[in-house]
Amino acid sequence: MKKCRNRRKPYRPVSHEKLRETRILSGLSKKEAAEMLRVTYRTLHNWESGRIQVPYAAFKLLHILTGYELPSDAWRGWRFSGDALWSPEGKKFTAPDLNYLSLTFAMANQWRLEREEKRKSGLPPERSNLLPFVRPKNGRKKNSSIG
């Protein structure tokens, strides 16, 4: 008998009140929420009235799209609000802020690889960008009147 290693989390039913509350708190009308979820107005109305059981995927998607939460535990505390991504510390990131993020990571990775190569080769790190330390000469002139 094989054991199933990848067990799914148990299905969590979503109440129609919770779906309605989420939609209202996000400031969406039924029509806007239906368009966002790509379902008909009537389907959303049936979910909210309790006639049809609310699919968990639809509820989760509404949470993600309205900025309540992002999809995995790794993103816990991060959220979207308007056109910005907010960190758990309250730092706001807009699209222009994140445009060159991949370039920054690529540059840091290249620097790390070059540094590892230099360590493996046994060569001392380059110090060409550092200025040598020059001890300042004693700038005092001997004054004959003082001792």
Short description:
The protein has 147 residues and is mainly α. Helices cover 42% and strands 6% of the residues.
Beta-strand proportion: 5-15%
Which residues sit in consecutive blocks of at least 5 with pLDDT less than 50?
none
Strand segment count = 3
The side-by-side strand order for the widest beta sheet comes to 1-2-3
Separation, N- and C-terminal Cα atoms: 101 Å
The portion of residues assigned to helices is: 40-55%
Structural description of this entry:
By secondary structure, the chain is mainly alpha-helical. The chain contains six helices and three strands. It has helices at residues 16-25, 30-37, 41-49, 56-65, 95-98, 101-121, and strands at residues 79-81, 84-86, 92-94. The chain has a three-stranded antiparallel β-sheet. Strand 2 (84-86) and strand 3 form a beta hairpin. The protein is elongated. It starts with 15 loop residues before the first helix and ends in a 26-residue tail after the last helix.
What are the salient characteristics of this protein?
mainly alpha; 147 residues; elongated; 3 strands
Write the layout of secondary structure elements.
Layout: H1 16-25, H2 30-37, H3 41-49, H4 56-65, E1 79-81, E2 84-86, E3 92-94, H5 95-98, H6 101-121
Antiparallel strand pairs: 1-2, 2-3
